[in-house]
Amino acid sequence: MPDPETPPHAGARIGVAPPGATAMPRAPVPHGIRPMPEGPPPAPRRQSFDWRAALVPTLISAVSIVVVFGALGWLVTSAEQWPRIRLQFFNWDHMVASAPRVIKGFWTNLQVWLIVLACIAVWALVLAVIRSLRSPVFAPFRIMVVVYIDVFRGLPALLLVILFGFGIPALQIPGLPNSGLFWGGVAMVLSYSAYVCEIYRSGIEAVHEGQRAAARALGLSEWQTLIYCVLPQALRNVLPALMNIVVALQKDVALLSVIGVRDAVREAQIYTATTFNYSPLIVAAGLFLLATIPMARLADWVNRRDRERRLQITG
Amino acid sequence: MAAITIRGLTKYFGQTLVLDRVDLDVAAQEVVCLIGASGSGKSTLLRCINRLVEPDHGAIALDGVPVDDPRFGRTGLQKRIAIVFQSYNLFPHMRVIDNITLAPRRVHGDSRRAAEERAREALALFGMQDFANAYPEQLSGGQQQRVAIVRALMTRPDVLLLDEVTAALDPELVGEVLRIIASLRDRGITMVIVTHEMGFARAVADRVCFLHGGRILEDGPPEALFSTPQHERTQAFLERIVESGRL
Ligand SMILES: Nc1ncnc2c1ncn2[C@@H]1O[C@H](COP(=O)(O)OP(=O)(O)O)[C@@H](O)[C@H]1O
Ligand SMILES: [Mg+2]
After folding, report:
1. What span, in angstroms and rounded, lies between the C-alpha atoms of B224 and B51?
2. CB–CB of B83 and A217 under 8 A?
3. Which helix (H) or strand (E) segment is B9 a member of?
4. Short-list A77, A94, A96, CA closest to A86
5. Per the confidence metrics, is the pTM higher than 0.80?
6. Ligand 1: does its nearest atom lie under 6 Å from the Cβ of B43?
């Protein structure tokens, strides 16, 4: 009679034969070379794009896009005020008339964007390197960088642009440039560098400790270890994150318009102020999209390639 | 000629005692294997020898000269003592040839041509001549470890430190790396080897040291230590190794 507390086969579950059980006699295991037919079955056919399989999902997404945006469009256009709004925001004549100025302003955006970007890339790297130096000699510099990051990450970029763009030129310090554009750009660099420094640093810290050990064991100095071993790997680690910053910065250059820099937004506003028509803003919006969407796609592509690389390494 | 003398070596990580008054003499051209459970301090002992880890007490000397002697300069010690790691630690962003020539060019001032010529010779010696332009991730583990060994040997060191260099390899790739190490022994390089391959230790070591809790509990010639271990902890350790089928 089995004990009611113990379930049947309790012993079997932990690999112990129940008392009284005898081993089942086993059939002898045959041993031999397996006969193999000639040639393996064919590999699966290479997947070309299958129109028929893609048709239904494509149709579904197309229809849902049409439905959603159609509904939104209907909602907007059926509003009582729509005819007035259309004249004010989507007036083709005003768009054409303002386009040359807005495009000229946007050219300023692009130039500022590239210059500020280059400065951020370098300045943030300097900060990140200082922050990651380990020797105690550099402790004061490390603390300065930490304070810098706390301050500039804590302040809104808009506030910095206004303070720098209006404040410093007003000081009229001899020897310093007093253009708002210059100081606004400096504010952008200082503000963004605080973020980018942290991105760089995360990339530096993600480099495996064994890499530093190997470099030091080969006799490389701390500086050489950084240049030849750590930074190349760190930059590769953070490239996707940096791409997002590049895209974000392209839009944020428009912040400089508040201190009078004649960028695309400012030019559009100036036109608006004299004609009371907002269509130039739509032109500016189109230009921004035209520039950022390819960048975003590029960022996606960089991201995807990075993920594939990681899969390859670990897999 | 290169002999290593270790006296009273003690190392704490924080409050944990990792090496406890270790004494060890390695004669020139001698091959010493360090065995012991994981966490017993083998890697730390190895890393103290080439100053990757700074000990808290004790002294290490290479041919009677303390390893922290200013006479070695900034890179003199690294030129004479090389190390190979369990995880290879090749630089993933550099081709094999650049991995190997980095130190000769940037640290020891060789020209690129001279360094690459020597690197290709060394690669050929280990059957890796076809992979000079490959990136580490394109190689098998055994091939990566061979490259790491070539990289370590480029400065013609007198002492080679090997830290579980086959532990990350698939079983069928272990042999090729062990054969290379055995061939280095024949070239007269002083070696300190951390290994879990007891058969290998038996074949190549002049002496085996058993570490436990940061101390060398027992050392002796491999035959004696493996067949008649004296300390009960050595016996227990070797029994576990036998159970796992590694002896
Ligand atoms: N960098 C480090 N910081 C803190 N503790 C460490 C560090 N390196 C090793 N240890 C500790 O020291 C002990 C010995 O480590 P190690 O020398 O790597 O042992 P083994 O190589 O014999 O496995 C372990 O307990 C480990 O956790
Ligand atoms: Mg170890």
Report:
1. 32
2. yes
3. strand B4-13
4. A77
5. yes
6. yes
Burial A66-104 (b: 16+ CB within 10 A, else e): eeeeeeeeeeeeeeeeeeeeeebeebeebbebbbebbee
d(CA B91, CA B100) in angstroms, rounded, equals 10
Q: Which residue of B has its CA nearest to A311?
A: B137
- Surrounding ion ligand 2 within 5 Å at CB are B 43
pLDDT value of residue A40: 83
- Mutation to test the B interface, candidates A134, A212, A218, most B Cβ within 10 Å: A218
Structure tokens at A182: 């210059």
- Fold classification of B4-92+157-243 is Rossmann fold (3.40.50)
Q: B195 CB under 6 A from ligand 1?
A: no
pLDDT at A21: 65
Task: For ligand 1, atom 4, name the residue with the nearest CA.
Answer: B13
End-to-end CA distance of chain B: 32
A vs B, Cβ pairs < 8 A, gives 55
What was the ipTM of the complex prediction? 0.93
- The domain locations on chain B are 4-92+157-243
